[in-house]
């Protein structure tokens, strides 16, 4: 009888499995495609675009994501307790903030069972040193193998994938490159990996599995999934989580290949994607290693046994603390802005108007410029200044995108030589060839001898100059061998752009930045860029609105077309009249040295030259004051005398051993959208993105719509990149910069092997092991009525998901009475009045 029962159970299990297997086979690719949407693309280090690594989860609530990532990774994506404890002990966070945070949390989750959370529990929790460690809830086969055998096979597989991907995607760094023969990644890997033995001593099945894989990655994914389901029964959600766990273990390279799909969808050009394959190639490769271990494990479930909903309660408590710190910061910003209510307009017509990028580093310089003179007015606008261009350097084959990555560059602007057309091109080419020769000698098999003997002694002087005597090194890669005098003979060619297009670009730029009347005598467009030596992550410090490039080119372009008298005449017919004495000029803000570089302008008359000279003195004064303010937070700078500070900043920009040339956008926390009179002269500590917006000039809400669907998305990406790099620098950041090595000319790995690194290095967000960047969600203050903001939220799904799911906070500033309202759980509230009712 017992034997019959046993046979019947086995029969039932097999029938149930067969039914499940058929259902899974029909949805394997569909399931994979759904999972692939969770991935955010990663750009290479030449164009280090800031990304929100969780952007693919924007349809989930922020707290839901935190719990999911703990289960999929075993790591937390919420800040550590010590951060909150310090905030409370310093008095920045009060019990009032905790009460508000708790009520916001309860309003958000709609769960009455958690009403029992008390302030006492929150305080005891944050003071406790106990840390709950949650085992993986969703695991790969390699995770199970490691658990049973106390090994690090998952890490080994990650490194294997990284080696193959590094070789395949190499862009000229490797001297001995393996040919890809124009085949996609999966096909190329399959043809070569049969000679590899990654699992010696663990399993002998790997090569057999690879040999039997179909040529099509889709068929291969289905085949490997069949093998998995033969041993382990999975529901649909479990299979999704399994695929994402595979992606998570190779997150860097998976995100990098996802970039090509993003760009193909954005531009409509898919040739590169077809050539290399896509995310499915990485996942199939990763899964082949996983399935090779399937017979080596005894467990028949991929779900962890040590996780439960109860284990997530500490995440709920940490989340309330996060809300409390954000509430405290929001209160300070509101109080600061309210203090400016009675500020008057200081000028009828300013002498100088200066449009800066909304970047938080501009906030400090703008304030000091305006403090230096009542006749200086600054404007905040996206740093590409509304001109979506790509820039082709003199003699270069390709071009760099100088506009947000969410846009397509509409125009290619080329550099041309104003004198001899070939001499500077030849100089650049000779420089590039010399560099290639040095690299080839340095990286050759006998480099230990030949490099030192051939070139080594020539570097002694450079090292002494740059490291000891604080002189600028002779080698400046970014200048490509050209001197400053050479660069004066290069200009941009704008002639290919039709007059009608120039007029439209100029009109839209002026309209969207609110500069349609009351033009000053001098109107500057100031891009920004960084300056550092031997820094693979240099582009991460450049202009985010210019896709990781200096915004000076955009500034030059806009100033040039606005000085065109024909453009001005046509703008007048469109309602924008530019005074005859107005001159448009360009320049850029060096964010390491906090210096303003004003581009030469040949058309100044004597009076204009004299007036400008007076203001240039004020610009230098403002730069000095900006340097002193920034020095408070720069290591080794806070106690320097004024006479020493400029030299130290110069050294930071040019020292090849400097690991922290500047803090970049660290500590960003808010985005203020409104009239400058709200924030002029207010100290916002370099933590606020500032975008000018006048609701009275935006009757159809087109400008507000543009701000909320473009700059707000970009600032959210920046904010979340800094957030993620801070709370988990090993996975979502780029680890320790000192241990990073450039691979393939694409990105960095940690040490000799690791996954491709994304995000920011520890040196960009941490100091002495503690948080320098405060991991808070972006709080967006908009000077507009709630009904106007609602209209944009309801119109755009992406905006609605980011706000409703608490990826950022929206605060309305009523233009009439300056009342602040917070958007929470799809409604507007005033915390003091509404949360206690």
Automatic annotation (TrEMBL):
<feature type="binding site">
    <location>
        <position position="528"/>
    </location>
    <ligand>
        <name>Zn(2+)</name>
    </ligand>
</feature>
<keyword id="KW-0472">Membrane</keyword>
<dbReference type="InterPro" id="IPR018752">
    <property type="entry name" value="DabA"/>
</dbReference>
<keyword id="KW-0479">Metal-binding</keyword>
<keyword id="KW-1003">Cell membrane</keyword>
<protein>
    <recommendedName>
        <fullName>Probable inorganic carbon transporter subunit DabA</fullName>
    </recommendedName>
</protein>
<comment type="similarity">
    <text>Belongs to the inorganic carbon transporter (TC 9.A.2) DabA family.</text>
</comment>
<feature type="binding site">
    <location>
        <position position="543"/>
    </location>
    <ligand>
        <name>Zn(2+)</name>
    </ligand>
</feature>
<feature type="binding site">
    <location>
        <position position="359"/>
    </location>
    <ligand>
        <name>Zn(2+)</name>
    </ligand>
</feature>
<keyword id="KW-0862">Zinc</keyword>
<keyword id="KW-0813">Transport</keyword>
<comment type="function">
    <text>Part of an energy-coupled inorganic carbon pump.</text>
</comment>
<feature type="binding site">
    <location>
        <position position="357"/>
    </location>
    <ligand>
        <name>Zn(2+)</name>
    </ligand>
</feature>
<comment type="subunit">
    <text>Forms a complex with DabB.</text>
</comment>
<dbReference type="Pfam" id="PF10070">
    <property type="entry name" value="DabA"/>
</dbReference>
């Amino acid at each position: 009888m017992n034997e019959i029962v046993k046979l019947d159970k086995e029969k039932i299990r097999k029938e149930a499995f067969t039914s499940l297997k058929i259902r899974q086979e029909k949805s394997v690719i569909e399931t994979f495609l759904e999972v692939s949407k969770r991935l955010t693309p990663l750009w290479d280090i030449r164009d280090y675009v800031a990304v929100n690594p969780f952007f693919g989860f924007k349809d989930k609530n922020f707290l839901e994501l935190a719990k999911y990532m703990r289960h999929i990774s075993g790591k937390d994506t919420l800040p550590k307790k010590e951060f909150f404890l310090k905030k409370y002990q310093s008095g920045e966070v009060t019990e009032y903030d905790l009460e508000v945070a708790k009520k916001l949390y309860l309003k958000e989750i709609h769960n009455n069972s958690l009403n029992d959370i008390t302030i006492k529990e929150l305080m005891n929790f944050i003071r406790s040193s106990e840390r709950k460690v949650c085992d993986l809830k969703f695991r790969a086969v390699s995770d199970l193998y490691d658990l049973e055998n106390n090994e690090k096979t998952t890490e080994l597989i990650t490194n294997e994938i990284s080696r193959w991907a590094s070789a395949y995607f190499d862009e000229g760094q490797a001297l001995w490159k393996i040919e890809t023969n124009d085949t996609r990644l999966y096909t190329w890997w399959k043809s070569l990996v049969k000679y590899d033995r990654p699992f010696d001593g663990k399993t002998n099945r790997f090569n057999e599995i690879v040999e039997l894989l179909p040529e099509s990655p889709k068929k291969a994914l289905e085949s490997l999934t069949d093998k998995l389901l033969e041993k382990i029964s999975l529901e649909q959600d479990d299979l999704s989580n399994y695929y994402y766990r595979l992606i998570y273990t190779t997150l860097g390279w998976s995100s990098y290949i996802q970039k090509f799909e993003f760009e193909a969808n954005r531009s409509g050009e898919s040739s590169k994607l077809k050539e290399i394959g896509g995310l499915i190639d990485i996942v199939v490769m990763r899964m082949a290693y996983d399935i090779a271990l399937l017979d080596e494990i005894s467990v028949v479930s991929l779900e962890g046994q040590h996780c439960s909903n109860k284990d997530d309660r500490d995440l709920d408590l940490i989340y309330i603390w996060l809300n409390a710190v954000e509430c405290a910061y929001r209160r300070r910003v509101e109080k600061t802005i309210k203090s400016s209510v009675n500020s008057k307009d200081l000028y009828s017509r300013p002498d100088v108007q200066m449009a800066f990028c909304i970047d938080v580093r501009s906030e400090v310089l703008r304030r000091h410029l305006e403090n230096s003179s009542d006749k200086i007015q600054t404007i905040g606008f996206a740093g590409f200044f509304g001109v979506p261009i790509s820039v082709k350097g003199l003699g270069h084959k390709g071009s760099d995108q100088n506009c947000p990555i969410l846009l397509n560059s509409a125009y290619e602007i080329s550099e041309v030589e104003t004198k001899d057309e070939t001499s500077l091109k030849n100089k650049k080419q000779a420089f590039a060839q010399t560099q290639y020769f040095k690299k080839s000698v340095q990286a050759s098999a006998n480099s230990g001898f030949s490099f030192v003997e051939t070139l080594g002694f020539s570097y002694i002087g450079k090292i002494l100059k740059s490291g000891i005597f604080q002189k600028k090194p002779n080698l400046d890669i970014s200048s490509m061998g050209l001197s400053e005098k050479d660069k004066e003979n290069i200009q941009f060619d704008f002639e290919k752009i039709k007059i009608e297009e120039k007029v439209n670009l100029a009109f839209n730029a002026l309209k969207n930045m609110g500069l349609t009347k009351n033009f000053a005598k001098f109107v500057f467009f100031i891009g920004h860029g960084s300056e550092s030596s031997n820094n693979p992550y240099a582009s991460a410090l450049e202009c985010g609105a210019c896709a990781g490039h200096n915004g000076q080119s955009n500034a030059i372009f806009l100033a040039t077309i606005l000085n065109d008298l024909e453009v001005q005449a046509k703008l007048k017919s469109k309602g924008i009249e530019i005074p005859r004495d107005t001159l448009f000029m360009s320049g850029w803000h060096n964010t390491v040295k906090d210096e303003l570089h004003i581009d030469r302008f040949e058309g100044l008359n004597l009076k204009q030259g004299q007036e400008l000279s007076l203001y240039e003195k004020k610009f230098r004064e403002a730069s000095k004051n900006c340097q002193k303010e920034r020095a408070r937070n720069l290591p080794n700078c806070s106690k320097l005398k004024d006479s020493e500070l400029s030299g130290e900043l110069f050294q930071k920009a040019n020292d090849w051993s400097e690991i922290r040339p500047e803090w970049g956008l660290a500590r960003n926390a808010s985005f203020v959208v409104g009239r400058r009179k709200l924030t002029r002269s207010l100290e916002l500590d370099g933590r606020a993105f500032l975008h000018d917006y006048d609701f009275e000039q935006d009757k159809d809400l087109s400008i507000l719509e543009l701000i909320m669907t473009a700059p707000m998305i970009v600032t959210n990406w920046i904010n979340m990149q800094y957030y993620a790099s801070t709370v988990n620098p090993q996975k979502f950041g780029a680890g320790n910069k000192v241990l990073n090595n450039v691979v393939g000319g694409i990105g960095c790995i940690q040490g000799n092997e690791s996954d491709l690194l994304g995000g920011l290095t520890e040196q960009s967000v941490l100091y002495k092991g503690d948080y320098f960047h405060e991991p808070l969600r972006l709080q967006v203050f908009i000077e507009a009525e709630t009904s106007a903001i609602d209209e944009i939220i309801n119109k755009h799904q992406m905006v609605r998901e980011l706000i409703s799911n608490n990826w950022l906070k929206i605060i309305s500033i009523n233009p009439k009475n300056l009342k602040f309202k917070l958007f929470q759980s799809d409604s507007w509230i005033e915390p003091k009045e509404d949360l206690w009712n």
